[in-house]
Design a protein that fits this description.
Blueprint lengths: L7 H11 L2 H8 L6 H11 L18 E3 L2 E3 L3 E3 L13 H11 L2 E4 L7 H7 L3 E6 L5 H13 L5 E4 L9 H6 L24 H9 L8 H8 L4 E6 L2 H9 L4 E4 L13 H12 L5 E4 L5 H9 L4 E4 L4 E4 L3 E4 L12 H5 L2 E2 L2 H6 L10 E2 L8
Parallel strand pairs: 3-10, 4-5, 5-6, 6-7, 7-8, 8-9, 9-10
Antiparallel strand pairs: 1-2, 11-12, 13-14
Helix pairs in contact: 4-5, 10-11
Bound molecules: flavin mononucleotide (FMN) and 2-OXO-4-methylpentanoic acid.
Flavin mononucleotide binds next to loops.
Length: about 375
């Protein structure tokens, strides 16, 4: 690569050079044929914009609210497991990035820093993502620790009754580190010489009997708002609203779970329509550019989440995570800013789908690295 990286895929290439193959493959891989992995990105490419010109864009406000919390732009940090595989500071560095960007970080249930460490490291607004284990007592303790430590929402991930079949992890015999959150509660060690240790762990630990009934259980152990992550159909979106969730995240888990699910951007409008504004609809999957975010908002998402787990240490001071956030250096959504689409959010929302943008203005940011 010549010069400094200017977009997410160039950061990804740096990550490939910097990380052990096992971890790089884990971070970037999808399930089985990885068809949905490609499709998540390519479906965005098929959506064209319809620019309107001669609109005053000299003052732009990208801020929005998510569950009542104001964020500087409609971009949040998705929950991704085990940040210390890529950087020694792990989720604490990511949380600092969230604080610097004035956005919300969703901490993964499978984090390498503890709920408490992340909470005390910065004042970012934090949500806590939950996997439901067979050991419900462990889940309840973690949810209560999150609540005590000022997390503002629970994100229940519902697309992982078993871990997706990730062939690179099987070949690499992917091994997960011990997760500090579970120290004294549960061992994350499993014997599995056959393939992915992570998959074996999930098979042993995750509750594959999880069902709609369990939303009642979750309500009974927390007073925090509950968002459900992993919805891909209008039927499930309607059901989620009926059982009383506070938000829906349209997601196919970055194509890491069931291959041949549709690209998330292709089902967003159906879900937004079914939900009819009763609860906010958030979105993730394949977001690599500012224009992708713009398209998701145009289709009715309140905000998008970007995966942030692949940190790159570049020179001696900067830590970048390739899916958009820089933590040490001012903390702006770097790759996104490089091709950011500036828009009048409110005007856009009043216009009919699909591409009636009030205006579009591409604003590359120079000298971001100096
Ligand atoms: C390395 C990695 C780890 C992830 N870990 C989790 C996790 O612990 N919990 C979860 O709900 N989703 C997890 N996800 C899924 C993300 O939250 C998100 O849905 C997905 O990455 C969005 O797609 P994108 O990677 O194309 O942005 C993970 C994704 C990646 C790439
Ligand atoms: C440890 C895994 C369950 C984390 C995850 O959700 C993922 O790798 O996609």
């Amino acid at each position: 690569m010549e010069g400094e990286p200017v977009n997410v895929s160039e950061f990804q290439e740096l990550a490939r050079q910097a990380l052990p193959k096992m971890y790089y493959d884990y971070y970037t891989g999808g399930a089985e044929d990885q068809y949905t992995l490609k499709e998540n990105v390519e479906a965005f490419h098929r959506i064209m914009l319809r620019p309107r010109v001669l609109v005053d864009v000299s003052r732009i406000d990208l801020s929005t609210t998510v569950l009542g919390y104001r964020v500087s732009a409609p971009i949040m940090i998705a929950p991704t497991a085990m940040h210390k595989l890529a950087h020694p500071e792990g989720e604490v560095a990511t949380a600092r990035a969230a604080a610097a960007c004035n956005t919300i970080m969703v901490l993964s249930f499978m984090s390498t820093c503890t709920v408490e460490e992340v909470a005390s490291s910065c004042n970012a607004i934090r949500f806590f993502q939950l996997y439901v284990y067979k050991r419900r007592d462990v889940c309840a303790q973690l949810v209560q620790r999150a609540e005590r430590n000022g997390y503002r929402g629970i994100v229940l991930t519902v697309d992982t009754p078993r871990l997706g079949r990730r062939e690179a992890d099987i070949k690499n015999k992917m091994v997960a580190p011990q997760l500090k959150n579970f120290e004294g509660l549960l061992s994350t060690e499993v014997e599995d010489d056959e393939g992915s240790n992570l998959e074996a762990f999930a098979k042993e630990t995750f509750d594959d009997a999880l069902s709609w009934r369990d939303l009642g259980w979750l309500r009974s152990i927390t007073s925090l708002p509950i968002l459900i992550k992993g919805v891909l159909t209008h039927e499930d979106a309607i059901r989620a609203v009926e059982v009383g969730v506070d938000g829906i995240i349209v997601s196919n888990h970055g194509a890491r779970q069931l291959d041949y699910t549709p690209a998330t951007i292709s089902v967003l409008e159906e879900i937004v329509h079914a939900v009819g504004g009763k609860v906010p609809v958030l979105f993730d999957g394949g977001v690599r550019r500012g224009t992708d975010i713009f398209k998701a908002l145009a289709l009715g998402a309140q905000a998008v989440l970007v995966s942030s787990s692949l940190h790159i240490c570049s020179s001696n001071i900067r830590i970048f995570s390739w899916n958009c956030f820089s933590s040490a250096n001012g903390g702006f959504p770097l790759a996104i800013l490089k091709g950011w689409v500036v828009f009048d959010h409110h005007a856009l929302m009043q216009l009919p789908w699909p591409f009636c943008c009030h205006f579009i203005f591409l604003e590359p940011t120079d000298n971001w690295f100096s």
